[in-house]
TrEMBL record:
Top EC class of this enzyme: oxidoreductase
Name recorded for this polypeptide: glycine oxidase
Record carries keyword Cell membrane: no
Species: Streptomyces himastatinicus ATCC 53653
A GO molecular-function annotation: glycine oxidase activity
Cellular component terms (Gene Ontology): cytoplasm
Domain FAD dependent oxidoreductase: 16-371
KW Oxidoreductase (keyword) present: yes
Length: 405
């Protein structure tokens, strides 16, 4: 199905680029495309919403390192390096403050097992040349006096920062509007194909009138919903699934501030817990990881688990007002990495599957997608994340495999 790239600028369609999904990934794609002079629209009933409304906003390339994810680490680090200039540019373009905080992160261990786990992680980080410093329990508490006395040691990672994802989404929306991106505040019902069914040409809207928007390039950037758009041929449907995360928001009243001066996290009984303190006094506690399909119920069990683990880490949290509980859906992919750029169906590109790293990967996703939309090619650092890595084997390959089995 792979055919040479056709320039997206075409007078036949009202848009060069139609982005389905107005979360942070869809919006950054639209903003960056519009900056390159592409006539761009976004389709979403509530642009600026999505998983970013729930996310804590950790930029945790080093502290959230996992074995087997070194390729993803490269993309995460490249995006983390772009964050300061991305924030400055977006703040200028939108007039919004993103509450980007270069405060660093402390990952701590509460018992011998956690300590062994963290030591292993530190060895791995050192082998990869990453900047992480081992601290004793006492050194951890000197940095963060609210930590539990039982903390057994920790990793200080000064390069893992944070941003407020709700502010990020609002700023991207404002930047899109200022750059001339057209917002269609309605759900996309179906991908449109040309008469031969071999090219994506836009989307039909769920507006009751069956409005059809055509575009040179359509980008599917609908987070965990990306695999559910009607009309997408099976062989290019993104293999994305929802992974539920429950998150709490506490507030730190003036007399308790500063409660924590950096992000504090731990693995407790195998689950990740993190506390992300904002300068405005918000303290975000997250997150559960649950494979429960489309369920977004906040459960007593989820809230209990988060509070229990956070309390073991920082006992003083029980004094703080609990102001919000929410659940969101991470767009999980088979290898936990995003799907970026052209698919095997001409006219259809993907920007989805960011799983735990949507906020962190926003800057590099915007740059990579704008390049792919403009030139038809992903930049080198994004090429390992082409959706083609999940394409079904071609008939020829399948035949060879069958013959040699
Ligand atoms: N990266 C944090 C989370 O997905 O919970």
């Amino acid at each position: 199905m792979h055919t040479p790239y056709e320039a997206p600028r075409s007078n036949a369609a009202p848009y060069d680029v139609l982005v389905i999904g107005g979360g942070i990934i869809g919006l950054v794609t639209a903003w960056r495309a519009a900056e390159r002079g592409l006539r761009t629209a976004v389709v979403d009933p509530a642009p600026g919403g999505g998983a970013a409304r729930v996310a804590a906003g950790m930029l945790a390339a080093v502290t959230e390192l996992h074995y087997g994810e070194q390729t993803l680490l490269g993309l995460n680090l490249a995006s983390a390096r772009r964050y300061p200039s991305f924030v400055a540019e977006l703040e200028r373009a939108s007039g919004h403050d993103l509450a980007f905080r270069t405060c660093g992160t402390l990952s701590v261990a509460l018992d011998a097992d956690d300590r062994a786990h963290l030591r292993e992680l530190h060895d791995f980080q050192q082998r990869l040349g990453l900047d992480a410093q081992w601290l004793t329990g006492r050194e951890c508490r000197r940095l963060e006096p609210m930590l539990a006395p039982g903390v057994r040691g920790g990793l200080r990672v000064d390069g893992d920062h944070q941003v407020d994802p709700r502010r990020l989404a609002a700023a991207l929306l404002a930047a899109c509007e200022r750059a001339g991106v057209v917002l269609h505040r309605v759900r996309a019902e179906r991908l449109l194909l040309n008469g031969d069914g071999d090219r994506a040409i836009g989307a039909e809207l769920a507006d009751g009138a069956g409005t059809r928007l055509t575009a040179g390039q359509t980008v599917l950037a609908a987070g965990s919903l990306s695999g559910r758009l009607l009309g997408v041929p099976e062989e290019v449907l993104p293999p994305v699934r929802p992974v539920k995360g429950q998150v709490l928001r506490l507030s730190v009243p003036g007399p308790y501030a500063p409660f924590l001066s950096r992000t504090v996290r731990a693995v407790v009984r195998g689950g990740h817990v993190y506390l992300v303190p904002r300068e405005n006094g918000e303290l975000v506690v997250g997150a559960t990881t649950e494979e429960l399909g489309w369920d977004t119920t906040v459960t007593a069990g989820g809230v209990y688990e988060l509070l229990r683990d956070a309390h073991e880490l920082v006992p003083g949290i029980t004094e703080l007002p609990l102001v919000e509980t929410l659940a969101g859906l991470r767009p999980g992919s088979p290898d936990n990495a995003p799907l970026l750029g052209p698919t095997e169906l001409p006219g259809l590109q993907l920007a989805t599957g960011h799983y735990r790293n949507g906020v962190l990967l926003t800057p590099i996703t915007g740059d990579a997608m704008a390049e792919a939309l403009d030139s038809g090619e992903l930049p080198p650092e994004a090429r390992p994340f082409s959706p083609r890595r999940f394409a079904p084997p071609t008939t020829a390959t399948a035949a060879v495999q069958e013959h040699t089995a």
